[in-house]
């Protein structure tokens, strides 16, 4: 019976609690009903019941944490919230004996905060439009209105993305020195206003002329932007420009300048002077806008120029020779020189090439963009080879020189026994015979060209690496079977023997003689092996040419279909057999043949052909 007693006690307590709850009507309210963001608000909770005291009430926040409250009367408590901001925690909850019964929303009105106000007004229009951003995080439930100089206000529209509002079509009839703007914000029935003031140069953007614009590359550093009418007032000399330089060559990066441009007035033209791009003979466009010199002033709509080409000029520099970049062929007197081709952006003009001469007397033949050839080179004298870059504007102001020593004893100053190792993609060599004043080596490599004279494909740069005198091996990053490779011995006094090429086209004289002798032996062996088969073939062809075939005068004769041949009856449908490889002239009128003629009968029986001969046939003679 004890458990029944405990159950009755619990049911009694629960019933009493429910009765007290039903008799208590909880009410929450705030004072004031709404508060501006950053202000203070009081939240009240009351239970209209004589059986509930203020000690049974509590107020909690959205995290169910009890906040500080004060007693107002026997059935009422309040909580004061300071520095309120609008966020996701705008609700407070009233609890009766730790049970949440009701909640109250605190209406927090965000302050009007307008940023980045920009207004645009065209002189030929009677309406002004503005844009601004709401600096608050929340922009929902807000309605903005804008008016100028007490004109009727217009509604502002929230753009699709972000917190930017656009206010179009604000009526204005005149250009004022000052524009008084009133921005009104309505939020859930509560209104706020903001007064702003803009000067006319902050509202009026500069007008672009109606005439066609011309752009002229006047010099290396100057561009002229020209309109054929003096449209701008004098104060436009003080305007700020924003100009994008847009190169048409993808290797050149676009860039932006923002500065004041110099204005030159003319009775019939207006000239603006711009800085020219640094790359010569390149195609560009300009995209630009401008504004009056105030930070709040609006930028004018962008316009874009037609394409123009910067002024061509002579190349800025000559190319660089490879270290000891020459190769001598004593057997024919040819001397090749090699350099690093300039980048296309350094051409500075059309018809780009190079000019190479020796001691200002002998001119080389330009083979490619990285090599030239001197014919009939005098190896008994040292010489200086000079190179210039050249285009349609002329040659570069300066040149570069390559010292070529006397080459009568050049083999003693050349690296020896060049050997490329396929297993580890490296090249090795032996030091030259003459090692006095030897300071190192230069390993050069380049792609093979299809041309038979220059050895390097000029679509790619010749690559090289300078090594110390103690280094007799160079490791490549990949296979170098196809590219040409050269090793040059470098001396302190420029007495090197030039480049030694390791390729199928160029080799040392010893290697050339070795390969030539091997080729002769191979050719002789091939001839000996082929003599016997050729002789037998010729005799066989001569024997076949002596075969003769004699066709008899009388080849066929008609036979009686009913006549038997060797006990067989001839087939009725076989009249005459004409061999397909004989001329039709062999077919004669068989009935007119003499009776003593030979008879040849082709008969078919059971799909098997046979020949019946009653008399002797003419003899077929085959010559031997």
TrEMBL record:
GO terms for cellular component: membrane. It comes from the Eukaryota. InterPro entries: Hematopoietin_rcpt_Gp130_CS. Keywords: Disulfide bond, Glycoprotein, Membrane, Receptor, Repeat, Signal, Transmembrane, Transmembrane helix. Residues 1-21 form the signal peptide. Its main location: membrane. PROSITE patterns: HEMATOPO_REC_L_F2 (PS01353). It is a single-pass type I membrane protein. The chain crosses the membrane at residues 518-538. It is found in: Membrane. GO terms for molecular function: cytokine receptor activity. This is Uncharacterized protein. The gene is Dsim\GD25336.
